[in-house]
């Protein structure tokens, strides 16, 4: 997260981890088979292998992406490589290479290793984390959409990994990568915030609470999804909703839509199917939790990588008193 | 679109067609098979048939949704009915019924007919249009996802239409309804707006221009998608991006994310693969076009049903001078 304008993006304010890409996606080339074939063969093209969904990373400070030239990936594996065109950076074409998880004994160069995206993303340069997010989401989608949802026949990759077409000509349905919109909301009232602890929290650190969140459903706006989810999960009605910022989240591919949501009067109650607990926290508790996010406690918030963390920080930064300026 | 708070929703400002639902979706009941079975059998439950993706509508002013009791839908068709649970309204459980398009000679009651959603939505009450959007999107998703994308086996409906599970137990993958986030942007500079005419515009009325728009891709935020699409389609760089409002769009199921986007200096150029033309329009031209949206002309804007129309209106309403208040 930075307050600076990212090169070429001119985004004032918040840049979340996984946003802030500087890649030229060159989307018009995806369907140009002969140009893609040329780029795949070019000396200057670079390839980033993902094993399973973990990118190759070169140790360092910061760690770098393990870009390989054509010669190196041919030797890397004997299996068929799925090359996903992600665009151009520094005048070189870039592809993500999706390697099957089974092929995990592949030796890589000293100082390089396949690393989980959650663990490595906070260490990467902002544009590198964004590129990893795009590659991981594309690789995950291709890996789980080998068949046509319409008729069940095998579907083959087209558009350099940005679509898949049914191989049965009588069907021929084309599918595109899926990105699921999710609302995530900082719910506040009278200088306090409502955070919840998910029931899957057995594997969460003690004290971890986060913003409520949920998928946007068919037939509802962002603001309506915020209201429905808050009502379902915590029994609280929401008045004004204000969009704050958004974050691509590559697990496997959601668009996190961050909002500040003003709670109306009423007692919170937990939906036991979703949450272990839900609680109001004071500004002081949140201030401590944001500073000590990596320490267990009565309240622990998610790490800075997450939009939940950034929404709490944004709300704290807006100062006390009335919850925000009314239009 | 209304400035009033919708009952139970407290949404100030803009309510787009297809938003403004008043349904209690009762999502926790979807996976409760015995409760759903009870509701399907209940005297008080009401069913809204969709033929293909067109809802049954009862003529009137406004037209009403063609809700039928259990007895009537059993007689309606002999084929297997897919009942999609949408929630509760007026204390009655509500299901959408997806009828195959082929079964189109079904007689319906006098004064009732299956009508296209684009045509009928502007005539419906706000909550009815929202319910139709939810039902249409759910029906469309179920109709096109009969198979498991992972392994190709048949996938059967679960959770009363809100998920589908692979019937091959060794796979068992579960898929959920898909909602694709799309950015749509009112691009402005020096008191003018940039609108484009799509190349599919052969079937569009003469003069029709609209806001640029495109799918949010993996690994990008809303603001980045606005910048990339505007650059790809019109060769214009964008500075500040401001979220305005969002609209569910049931053709078949997108979430339209409306933004106001400030253009940086530079000449517009058309992407011939996407647009027939792109042009700056003055405030005066837009004012006329919004008032006479149903009349062909040099400039014609989309109908009030669309977020594109509402974004133009919102920008006009903000007044002239500097494009908007800076933070």
Give your account of this protein's structure.
Two copies of one chain form a homodimer. With 327 residues, the first copy, chain A, is α+β, with helices and mostly antiparallel strands. Helices cover 22% and strands 29% of the residues of chain A. Chain A has helices at 33-41, 70-76, 117-120, 126-144, 222-234, 283-291, 307-317; strands at 46-51, 54-58, 64-65, 68-69, 82-89, 92-99, 112-114, 155-158, 163-166, 174-175, 180-189, 192-198, 212-215, 238-249, 254-263, 275-282. In chain A, the strands form three sheets. In chain A, strands 1, 2, 3, 4, 5, 6 and 7 form a seven-stranded mixed β-sheet that branches. In chain A, strands 11, 12, 13, 14, 15 and 16 form a six-stranded mixed β-sheet that branches. In chain A, α6 crosses α7 (307-317). Chain A is globular and about 60 Å long. At the A-B interface, α4, α5 and β14 of A face α4, α5 and β14 of B.
The structure class of chain A reads alpha+beta
Shape assignment of chain A: globular
Q: Kindly, what is the distance between the CA atoms of the first and last residues of chain A, rounded to a whole number of angstroms?
A: 27 Å
Number of helices of chain A: 7
Strand fraction of chain A equals: 25-35%
Low-confidence stretches of chain A: 1-11, 321-327
């Amino acid at each position: 997260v930075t307050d600076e304008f990212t090169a070429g993006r001119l985004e004032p304010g918040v840049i979340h981890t996984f946003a802030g890409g500087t890649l030229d996606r060159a989307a018009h080339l995806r369907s140009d088979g002969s140009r893609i074939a040329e780029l795949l063969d070019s000396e200057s093209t670079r390839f980033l292998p993902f094993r399973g969904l973990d990118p190759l990373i070169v140790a360092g400070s910061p760690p770098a992406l393990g870009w390989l030239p054509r010669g190196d990936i041919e030797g890397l594996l004997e299996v068929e490589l799925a090359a996903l065109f992600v665009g151009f950076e520094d005048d070189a074409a870039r592809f993500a290479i999706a390697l099957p998880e089974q092929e995990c004994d592949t030796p890589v160069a000293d100082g390089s290793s396949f690393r989980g995206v959650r663990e490595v993303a906070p260490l990467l340069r902002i544009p590198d984390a964004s590129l990893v997010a795009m590659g991981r989401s594309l690789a995950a989608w291709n890996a789980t959409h080998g068949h046509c949802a319409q008729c069940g026949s095998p579907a083959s990759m087209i558009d350099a990994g940005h679509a898949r077409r049914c191989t049965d000509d009588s069907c021929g349905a084309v599918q595109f990568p899926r990105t699921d919109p999710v609302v995530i909301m900082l719910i506040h009232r009278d200088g306090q915030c409502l955070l919840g602890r998910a029931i899957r929290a057995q594997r969460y650190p003690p004290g971890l609470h986060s913003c409520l969140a949920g998928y946007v459903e068919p037939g509802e706006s962002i603001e309506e999804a915020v209201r429905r989810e808050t009502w379902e999960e915590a029994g609280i009605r929401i008045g004004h909703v204000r969009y704050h910022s958004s974050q691509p989240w590559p697990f496997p591919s959601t668009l996190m839509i961050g909002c500040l949501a003003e709670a109306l009067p009423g007692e919170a109650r937990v939906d036991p199917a979703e949450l272990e607990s839900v609680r109001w926290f004071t500004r002081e508790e949140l201030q401590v939790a944001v500073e000590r996010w990596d320490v267990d406690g009565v309240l622990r918030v998610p790490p800075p990588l997450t939009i939940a963390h950034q929404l709490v920080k944004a709300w704290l930064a807006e100062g006390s008193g009335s919850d925000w300026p009314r239009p």
